[in-house]
Task: inverse folding
């Protein structure tokens, strides 16, 4: 059992939670993730490690469906049944001069420790935080604390520039030649368009892939993704990969394969 | 041998009944049946069956005790060599081991050693005969990586020698393939749980959610004072066919399929949180136990047409004989000498499998006739395809342990004492041999315990 030692809500959909998990904290690095089961008979869901403090692990999650909503019902002092990690490969911090991070929604959580690592090695860092509306732009202050530039875009224009993250990225890539690397973390469709844009502008791009996972140890093969016509297991080879040649359409299809069943789970949640 | 009775058939659940449930197929012998079958053993002076058992269970000895109604002693006799009799009696490939060598098999049918072992094992389990006093801890810490049969056997042996043993398991439940792979209808999960509870009673410490190499590295285990380490992490990484269409939705590796159903209880649909999506027409690729398990599980989940694609002929099928028979009885169609060459999808969901018909050529390195392409193709309509063509060790420990030598395919290399290239670190089971059997993994865990004991004792002498 793993104790929840702190919890806050950013908005009605996104929570920040700190969990006591020494075996995860010990070797965790930016880019690693955990898999948790909220309670007995729960499903195994992957979440990125958003920070580490001693024996404590920070997660930031969006209440998408049954399991993340169930997690959201837990409070400080409650426990989580299973919490395993750190899983995956740590993010590969490349030797780059100026990095632009692009976050979609809750993707700003996993992006934060990576961009910090770039800053610490001496790169210039800028970030574009994209979200539905003002309430969903999270971690702005944390980014402002170390980034050279923080840009915000919202679908409805309630904060920052009205539009998509790519609307903010395009002029940056056009006008700032010092930018030599892009990192995109967020919904697959967003990563797909950001990757295409980076490629068009001849900048390298890393993305963080989020296929459905079960064990997270390379055993089930559910998490396979195609990059450059080769198959990788996102849980042991990733989740971060160079984004230039990822088959994003395949990833979307595989993510959606269980949509009906997940829908059924949500109905169950509503009934309770 | 003139009056030799035929081998007594084990009672089974009816095939058309059982292919809708997950209850055990083989019901086993009762005492009377066990004794009747035991009478067939002629108590050979040089028992060939024992030689053919990987852990040399003293078969005629336990059978004799069974006939003398000394069931406790029969259990002890098996237990000396095999700590998992209820499991091995059910899942060993007996026809190529003990029973395959039984002298009666030359002229008639061999003694049903497996069913007898199962009977005695279950008796012992019921009476808690494995619950024996163990020596107090000698304070020397041992770490065991993985809770499959190799790890369990290693931990049990070392605990009995007095060591302070901790098992680290990556998943949220213990037992390895016994829990997440082999389905209940062949190996009920309470048997596995019972074995794990026995180890807990002996004082073995279990730590779940600990991925060695990630959560703690082998080096960190050493720093924490574990004097010797056993790696029994198995061969979990599924092999792929390497044909177009393998990443279409609806294409599963057997591990994903079986894990969803067994470990994550997808069969409790619609309530399961980790469901499995299965249509009417399901193809399974492969001919081993894993393929049979996947096919029979698919049938039980309601698939109407389940067929197995295997590129060799019937006699080359590596699965246990019982499982092949059971699969056919349950309505699984074996399509032999057929090799999938392409998976065809619509909207990125698999719809068809294209196969090439094969013929047999000269024997290959495995001694089986090599399947050769014929240039003749067919396609079948499918809703799902389950790939079960083998497993390799996952790379987590290899990638995170400096100086650990491995085979090109990922297996850990060990010396004659089962020690790896890292001092004090031993290995055994599927992680060394590649996907093999429960009894071989168990035997390797037990043998390694002996070598680890020697290693620690010698070390102490030296210092
Ligand atoms: C490596 C990795 C890191 C992630 N990090 C974060 C994070 O930091 N914060 C965050 O909010 N989300 C993260 N996710 C996504 C998160 O795992 C899913 O939102 C969560 O599993 C949804 O579960 P649910 O039951 O609440 O919703 P559901 O209604 O079951 O699913 C909603 C969507 O989530 C995806 N999903 C469902 N089950 C799984 C599963 N077992 N594994 C992966 N995806 C699944 C599907 O695409 C589905 O359409 C990450 C995913 C991966 C693979
Ligand atoms: C579906 C199926 C059916 C089978 N049927 C039969 C049969 O009928 N008869 C038979 O004899 N054999 C059968 N086998 C094969 C048999 O199950 C295996 O040979 C045996 O389980 C191997 O034992 P093991 O202890 O080496 O590994 P496993 O049973 O694979 O156990 C390894 C354990 O280590 C854990 N692990 C892996 N990496 C780490 C890590 N880094 N840190 C911590 N823990 C880790 C895994 O999660 C797992 O629990 C079958 C296999 C499968 C998949
Ligand atoms: S352990 Fe397996 S091979 Fe050995 S006697 Fe028992 S059933 Fe036969
Ligand atoms: S070989 Fe057969 S008959 Fe002989 S001892 Fe073994 S089981 Fe009995
Ligand atoms: S999640 Fe199972 S192999 Fe990656």
Result:
């Amino acid at each position: 059992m793993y104790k929840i030692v702190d919890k806050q809500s950013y908005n009605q959909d996104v929570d920040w939670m700190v969990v006591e998990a020494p075996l995860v904290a010990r070797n965790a690095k930016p880019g690693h993730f955990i898999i948790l089961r909220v309670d007995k008979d729960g499903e195994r869901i992957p979440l990125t490690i958003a920070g580490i403090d001693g024996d404590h692990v920070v997660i930031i999650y969006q209440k998408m469906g049954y399991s993340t909503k169930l997690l959201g019902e837990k409070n400080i002092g409650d426990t989580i049944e299973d919490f395993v990690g750190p899983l995956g490969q740590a993010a590969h911090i490349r030797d780059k001069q100026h990095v632009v991070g692009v976050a979609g929604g809750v993707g700003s959580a996993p992006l934060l420790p990576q961009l910090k690592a770039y800053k610490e090695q001496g790169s210039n860092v800028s970030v574009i935080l994209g979200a539905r509306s003002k309430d969903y732009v999270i971690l702005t202050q944390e980014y402002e604390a170390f980034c050279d530039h923080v840009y915000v875009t919202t679908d409805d224009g309630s904060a920052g520039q009205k539009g998509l993250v790519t609307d903010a990225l395009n002029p940056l890539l056009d006008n700032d030649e010092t930018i030599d690397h892009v990192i995109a973390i967020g919904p697959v469709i967003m990563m797909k368009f950001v990757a295409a844009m980076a490629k068009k502008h001849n900048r390298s791009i890393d993305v963080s892939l989020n296929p459905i996972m079960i064990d997270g140890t390379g055993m089930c093969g559910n998490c396979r993704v195609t990059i450059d016509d080769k198959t990788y297991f996102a849980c042991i080879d990733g989740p971060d990969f160079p984004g230039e040649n990822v088959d994003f359409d395949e990833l979307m299809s595989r993510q959606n394969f269980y949509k009906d069943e997940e829908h059924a789970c949500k109905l169950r949640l509503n009934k309770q | 041998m003139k009056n030799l009775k035929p081998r007594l058939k084990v009672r089974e659940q009816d095939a058309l009944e059982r292919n809708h449930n997950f209850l055990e197929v083989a019901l086993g012998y009762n005492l009377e049946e066990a004794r009747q079958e035991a009478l067939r053993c002629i108590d050979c002076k040089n028992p060939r069956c024992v030689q053919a058992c990987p852990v040399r269970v003293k078969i005629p000895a336990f059978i004799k005790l069974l006939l003398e109604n000394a069931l406790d002693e029969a259990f002890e006799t098996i237990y000396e060599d095999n700590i998992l009799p209820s499991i091995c009696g059910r899942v060993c490939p007996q026809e190529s081991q003990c029973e395959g060598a039984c002298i009666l098999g030359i002229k008639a049918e061999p003694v049903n050693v497996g069913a007898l072992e199962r009977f005695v094992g279950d008796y012992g389990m019921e009476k808690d005969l494995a619950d024996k006093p163990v020596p107090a801890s000698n304070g020397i810490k041992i770490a065991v990586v993985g809770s499959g049969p190799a790890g369990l056997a290693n931990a049990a042996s070392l605990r009995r020698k007095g060591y302070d043993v901790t098992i680290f398991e990556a998943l949220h439940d213990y037992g390895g393939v016994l829990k997440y792979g082999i389905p209940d209808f062949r190996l009920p999960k309470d048997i596995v749980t019972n074995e794990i509870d026995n180890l807990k009673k002996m004082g073995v410490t279990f730590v779940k959610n600990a991925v060695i190499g990630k959560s703690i590295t082998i080096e960190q285990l050493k720093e924490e004072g574990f004097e010797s380490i056993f790696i029994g992490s198995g061969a979990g990484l599924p092999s792929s066919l390497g044909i177009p269409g393998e990443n279409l939705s609806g294409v599963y590796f057997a591990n994903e399929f079986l894990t969803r159903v067994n470990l994550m209880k997808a069969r409790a649909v619609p309530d399961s949180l980790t469901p499995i999506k299965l249509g009417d027409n399901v193809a399974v690729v492969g001919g081993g136990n894993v393929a049979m398990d996947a096919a029979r599980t698919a049938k039980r989940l309601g698939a109407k047409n389940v067929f197995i694609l295997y590129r060799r002929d019937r006699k080359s099928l590596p699965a246990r004989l019982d499982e092949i028979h059971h699969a056919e009885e349950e309505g699984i169609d074996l399509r032999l000498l057929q090799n999938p060459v392409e998976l065809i999808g619509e909207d990125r969901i698999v719809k068809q499998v294209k196969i090439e018909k094969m013929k047999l050529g000269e024997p290959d390195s495995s001694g089986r006739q090599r399947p050769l392409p014929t240039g003749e193709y067919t396609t079948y309509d499918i809703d799902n395809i389950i790939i079960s063509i083998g497993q390799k060790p996952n790379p987590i420990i290899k990638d995170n342990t400096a100086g650990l030598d491995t085979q090109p395919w990922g297996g850990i290399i060990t010396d004659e004492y089962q020690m790896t290239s890292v001092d004090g670190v031993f290995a055994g089971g599927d992680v060394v041999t590649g996907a093999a059997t429960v009894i071989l993994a168990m035997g390797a865990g037990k043998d390694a315990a002996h070598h680890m004991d020697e290693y620690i004792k010698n070390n102490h002498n030296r210092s």
